[in-house]
Amino acid sequence: MRQGIVHKIPDSLDFDKAALCEPFAVALHGLLDHTALTAADRVLVMGPGAIGQLVAQAARSCGAKTVLVGLPQDQERLDAARRAGIDVTLTRLTDEAMQELTGGRGFDVAVDCTGAEPAIRQAMKAVKKAGTFIQLGLTKPELTIDYSLLTAKELQIVGTFGHQYHNWEMAIELMASGKVQVDHLITSRYDLEDWQRGFEEMQGSKGIKILLYPNGEQGVEP
């Protein structure tokens, strides 16, 4: 492995949390490399999976008011996000909620982490005039969206993929310092020989992040 892609894990960051560095780096690149986020901003995140949860934590680390939206079947994930400090979680973003949360102004930044057309359409509609919509979740090749919003609201639309070296360094720093909460994302732990149980759990949309231990010793560091 070449030295240029190696990152040192500090003693204050255990291996379980370090396993979240890659998805957190994706979230940081998607949000912070494409905005100048401040504590005065309101951020909407669609999708409470691992990436969506980490985007919400990244926004929270900047002091921005953060709203995480999922579906009714995501209630357990949304409850976990609230316990981890996310300001507001919803199973449906209604016009009434928009009015209450933004005063009818709209969100400064909306990030779609689902790739699902209904969520994308709703997020674009929820962005304020001259706001930013970020597409982080992978989508199908063709979608139907309200393209007139680009001109009517002067939206900035950003596509993002992957991560860069500095995103890993920031992910490590934020987790090691305790500035973001990630413990709630690790919902199950299995020895490698029980990998099928972990895969079945994830395919059933249960939990958020599932860890497999190749040495068969959960939580034991060398």
Which stretches of 5+ consecutive residues score pLDDT under 50? none
Placed side by side, the strands forming the largest sheet appear as 3-2-1-4-5-6
Oligomer: single chain
Largest sheet: 6 strands, parallel
Overall residue-averaged pLDDT value: 93
Strand content: 15-25%
Number-wise, the strands total 8
Q: Using only CA atoms, what is the Rg?
A: 18 Å
The helical percent reads 25-40%
Order of helices and strands: HHEHEHEHEHEHEHEHE
N-end to C-end Cα span: 20 Å
Structural class: alpha/beta
Secondary structure tally, helices:
9
- Please tell me what the overall shape is: globular
Protein traits:
single chain; alpha/beta; 6-stranded parallel sheet; two-stranded parallel sheet; 222 residues; 8 strands
Structure description:
The protein is globular. With 222 residues, the chain is of the alpha/beta class. The protein is built from nine helices and eight strands. Helix content is 36%, strand content 19%. The two termini are 20 Å apart. The strands form two sheets. Strands 3-2-1-4-5-6 form a six-stranded parallel β-sheet, sandwiched between helices.
